[in-house]
């Protein structure tokens, strides 16, 4: 076999991608936050969180390749590199970036053809959703909430998936910011002023509470609250920059947008 044979995945998206490519036998360690695919939690030892990792446990696995995500894992990567481990940290934030990530990961592990075919299939799925959305009678304004204390709006790939699904993210200027702290809404009433038709909540690590959102001062004037259009998108489906967001995540958004358009078209 070509490429690395003992891979540690510090986040969920490389695990999901490698399983989708049929290359799961190469994986020797995963993130404790991994939920997709569910079988990975039963088959692979959990050796990292998002901002921390069990460096000693990882080294015992004798990895020849470690895959992580974003500058937030820079310290983990540096420590492993100091121990002579080869590390790749991706830093993609867009839909195109996710597609390219899948192609690059496949190439790095010696499964380029399978990765390209998988990426092409994912792109066709997105194109199909976009084509269907273009035929909707109306496009709703959508507020995506990534966290509630403080309020944090959606990241770039989420805003792009909302657009592909037929909606328009109400904070496009915030979505362009890669760091969560730059997407904090200092004034919650800004959501009221932008009058979203749909509110999507994905509070990473806890259940979305639409009744709490609806009870916020002044939010009874928001069309989404008035019409009961507050919906949860499970965080593993949308907040990981990997295959889940491009399949189940965008599919869930598209279904919500389509139902809204039918009622309000």
TrEMBL record:
Matches recorded under PROSITE patterns: FE_B12_PBP
Pfam families with a match to the protein in the record: Peripla_BP_2
Transmembrane segments: none
Domain Fe/B12 periplasmic-binding residues, every copy: 6-261
Protein name: ABC transporter substrate-binding protein
UniProt organism field: Novilysobacter erysipheiresistens
């Amino acid at each position: 076999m070509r490429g690395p044979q003992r891979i540690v995945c510090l986040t969920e998206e490389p695990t999901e991608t490698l399983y989708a490519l049929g290359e799961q036998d190469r994986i020797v360690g995963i993130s404790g936050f991994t939920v997709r695919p569910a079988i990975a939690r039963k088959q692979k030892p959990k050796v990292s969180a998002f901002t921390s990792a069990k460096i000693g446990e990882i080294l015992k696995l004798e990895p020849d390749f470690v895959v992580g995500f974003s500058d937030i894992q820079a310290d983990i990567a540096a420590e492993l590199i100091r121990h002579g481990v080869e590390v790749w940290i991706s830093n993609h934030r867009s839909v195109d970036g996710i597609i390219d990530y899948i192609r690059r990961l496949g190439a790095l592990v010696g499964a380029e053809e399978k990765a390209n075919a998988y990426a092409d299939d994912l792109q066709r799925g997105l194109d199909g959703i976009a084509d269907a959305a273009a035929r909707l009678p109306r496009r709703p304004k959508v507020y995506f909430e990534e966290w509630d204390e403080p309020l944090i709006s959606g990241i770039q790939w989420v805003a792009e998936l909302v657009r592909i699904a037929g909606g328009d993210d109400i904070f496009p200027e915030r979505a362009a910011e890669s760091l969560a702290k730059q997407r904090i809404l200092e004034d919650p009433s800004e959501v009221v002023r932008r009058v979203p038709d749909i509110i999507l909540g994905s509070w990473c690590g806890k259940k979305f509470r639409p009744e709490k959102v609806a009870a916020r001062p002044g939010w009874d004037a928001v069309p989404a609250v008035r019409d009961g259009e507050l919906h949860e998108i499970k965080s593993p489906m949308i907040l990981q920059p990997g295959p889940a967001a491009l399949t189940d995540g965008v599919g869930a958004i598209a279904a919500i947008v389509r139902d809204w358009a039918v009622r309000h078209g």
